[in-house]
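TASK: fixed-backbone design
INPUT:
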């Protein structure tokens, strides 16, 4: 029998020692990488906390657990734990070298045969040492693991905008972060280029444009270069897909003539997100025209919000050329999708202003049947058409639903509708409009809400209730 006192330090087999050492020192060959990855799969066949890990360790020493006295078994257990600590230390050192070596990206496609414990160690170690775009490839691979492993692998790590973006994805974000209103902490002057890139990508679109105007051209070009690499090489799934969508917004905004703009544009179009229409509009009128003509008269299910947004973007950014779209608008005006019909009708108003009453009726009809909230969302994106919403002809239930949807995202628009609810309705039903309007006012609060309330009270004190 081998005595426990002879054990306790993890030692690599001679055949593994050389390849392991070369990889740990940020080098090594592809053959070294393959040998060590296969060894790691066996070495980490069980999590250290798994009772089978200790049993397997004893077997590797040609020991029969049932034949070892209890006191000596406890000593072996202690030696096993010491060896695990030594193994962990050496493995972490190896992973640091791998993460900074030539096979960093390949590491994360080679983890299918290892334990959860080893995966967690590999991801956490790599995230901590990465200071370049490889961290994005690491997080893209991590996003394809279980949600629990993803959360555990980044728990308590130093904050960064790259991790902020990853967390946003884990929490359900799928639209570009530039379309959300949020405050991002400023990156320090010593931040890595990839960190600076992700900070810009997380800014609201207006802030992104302002920041780019202030930046030196050389700094912008360096970030665009990194964005080029990432958008071309990241996988189009999980966090990789989300990152590419955010990168697409950045590239189209920072350098519309860049070689990767076509790839960026394809990512934006594929997303089907209505808000990307304004980004496409910044690439030129022909970009919008091409997509609208490609859609034809038959809009595919799930793309109706996007097509409506493209129509809106053309109307807003190229109103002087709306006649070029007349034929396509006439086709869209007969679409089976209400939001597409409404967007087309809104654009046709510029060509046929006398149709405003017809448009007003169409808006009211579609809002009444707005079960999927597509029409109220359209109004949210196009607040200039709220004036066509005649509250006295709209049910209290419908208005309540619209105000409820707007009061957080666009409180100013909600207050505009509430003001109409308190002014326009007449007859015995007016009290119901007033009740819902006043409740909503109290919920929103603020100076503007107080002003509307005072005008309502003063007006009725003068004119009677």
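OUTPUT:
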């Amino acid at each position: 029998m081998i005595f426990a006192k002879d054990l306790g330090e993890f030692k690599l087999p001679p055949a593994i020692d050389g390849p392991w050492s070369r990889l740990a020192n940020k080098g090594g060959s592809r053959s070294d990488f393959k040998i060590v990855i296969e060894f790691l799969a066996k070495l980490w066949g069980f999590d250290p906390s798994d009772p089978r890990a200790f049993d397997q360790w004893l077997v590797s020493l040609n020991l029969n657990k049932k034949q070892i006295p209890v006191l000596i078994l406890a000593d072996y257990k202690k030696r096993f734990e010491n060896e695990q600590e030594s193994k962990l230390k050496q493995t972490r050192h190896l992973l640091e070298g791998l993460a900074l070596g030539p096979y960093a990206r390949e590491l994360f496609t080679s983890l299918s045969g290892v334990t959860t414990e080893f995966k967690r160690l590999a991801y956490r170690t790599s995230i901590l040492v990465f200071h370049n775009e490889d961290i994005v490839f690491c997080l893209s691979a991590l996003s394809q693991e279980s949600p629990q492993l993803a959360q555990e692998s980044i728990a308590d790590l130093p904050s960064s905008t790259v991790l902020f973006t990853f967390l946003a994805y884990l929490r359900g974000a799928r639209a570009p972060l530039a379309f959300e209103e949020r405050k991002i902490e400023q990156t320090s002057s010593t931040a890595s280029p990839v960190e600076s890139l992700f900070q810009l990508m997380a800014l609201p679109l207006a802030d992104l444009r302002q920041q780019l105007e202030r930046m030196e051209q050389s700094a912008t070009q360096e970030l665009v270069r990194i964005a080029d690499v990432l958008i071309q090489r990241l996988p189009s799934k999980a966090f990789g897909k989300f990152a590419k969508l955010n990168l697409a917004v950045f590239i189209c905004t920072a350098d519309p003539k860049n070689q990767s703009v076509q790839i960026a544009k394809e990512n934006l179009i594929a997303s089907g997100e209505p808000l990307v229409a304004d980004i496409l509009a910044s690439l030129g009128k022909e970009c919008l025209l091409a997509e609208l003509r490609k859609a034809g008269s038959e809009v595919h299910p799930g793309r109706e919000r996007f097509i409506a947004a493209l129509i809106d973007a053309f109307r807003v950014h190229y109103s002087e050329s709306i006649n070029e779209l007349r034929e396509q608008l006439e086709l869209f005006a007969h679409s089976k999708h209400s939001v597409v019909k409404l967007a087309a009708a809104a654009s046709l108003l510029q060509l046929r202003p006398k149709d405003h009453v017809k448009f007003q009726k169409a808006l009211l009809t579609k809002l009444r049947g707005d079960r999927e909230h597509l029409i109220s969302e359209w109004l949210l994106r196009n607040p200039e058409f709220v004036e066509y919403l005649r509250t006295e002809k709209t049910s209290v239930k419908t208005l309540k639903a619209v105000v409820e949807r707007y009061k957080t995202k666009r409180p100013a628009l909600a207050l505009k509708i509430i003001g109409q609810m308190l002014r326009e309705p007449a007859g015995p039903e007016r009290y119901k409009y007033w009740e819902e309007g006043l409740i909503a006012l109290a919920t929103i609060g603020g100076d503007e809400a107080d002003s509307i309330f005072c005008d309502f009270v003063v007006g009725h004190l003068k004119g009677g209730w």
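COMMENT: DSSP finds 25 helices and no strands in the chain.
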